[in-house]
Design goal:
Layout: H1 2-20, H2 26-38, H3 41-65, H4 72-110, H5 113-119, H6 124-163, H7 167-177, H8 180-206, H9 212-243
Helix pairs in contact: 1-6, 1-8, 2-6, 3-4, 3-6, 4-6, 4-7, 4-8, 4-9, 6-7, 6-8, 8-9
Amino acid sequence: MIKFLGACVQNLIECIKYILDGNVRFKTVISQAAAISYDSLPISLVIAFISAAVIAIQVSKEFLMTGAEAYIGGTIAVVMIREIAPGFVALAIGARAGTAISAEIANMQVTSQVDAIKTLKINPVGYYFAPRILASAITVPMVVLIAEFVGILGGMFVAYETINLNPARYMTSAWAWMATKDIYISLLKACIFGALIALVCATKGYQTRGGAKEVGISTTQAAILSTIYMLVADFLINLLFYIA
C-alpha cells in the first residue's frame, strides 16, 4: 500500500510537470471529460435523487411527530451538500469511469503500446495520466453541483408526497441552513476525489504486467483502492474544515 502510494505521488508530480510544460492538448482533455463525467451524469443524478428521497422518507415522519418539519429541507440540504453528493457521485464515477481508465491503460501496457510511446520519446505517464486527471478534477465538481441541486429537489418532492410539506417551507429551510462554506468544501472534495480516482486507477493500470487475466485483476484492485483513498481523503477534509 505504501509503495503504491509512493508511485501515485511520483506519477502526480510527473503529470504536473507535463501540464506546466504545456504538453496537454485541450482536445484530449475535452474528450476525457466527456468519457469520465458527462457519460456518468445520468447514473450520478439518479443516485443523488434516490439518496435524497430515502433520507426524506426516513426523517419526514419523525420530524413531523416532534413538530420539527420546518427543518426537513435544511437537514436534507446540509447532508446532500456536505457528504452525500460528493461522496456518492465520486463512487459512481469511480465505479464506471475509474475502472475504464484502469482497464484501458492496463491493456495498453500488456499490448506494448506504452513501450511504443516511449520509443517516440514521449513521457507515457504525462501523455496518458495528465489529460485524465485534469479532466476529472475539473468536471467532477460540475457533476456534484448538479447532483446537489437534483438531490435537494428530490427531497422536496418526497417530503411533499409523504407528509404534504409545503415546497416553499421546505426551500426556505434549505436556504436558511445552506452556507457558502459548505458549497466550497463540497466542490473542493469533488475536485480532489476526481483527481484521486483518475490518478489511482491510471497508476494501477500502468503497473499491470502479463495478459488479459492481469488486466481484470488490476481493474478490480483499482476500484477498491480508489474507494479507499477517496474515503481517507474525505475523512481528512472533514477533519480539517469541520473540526480543526
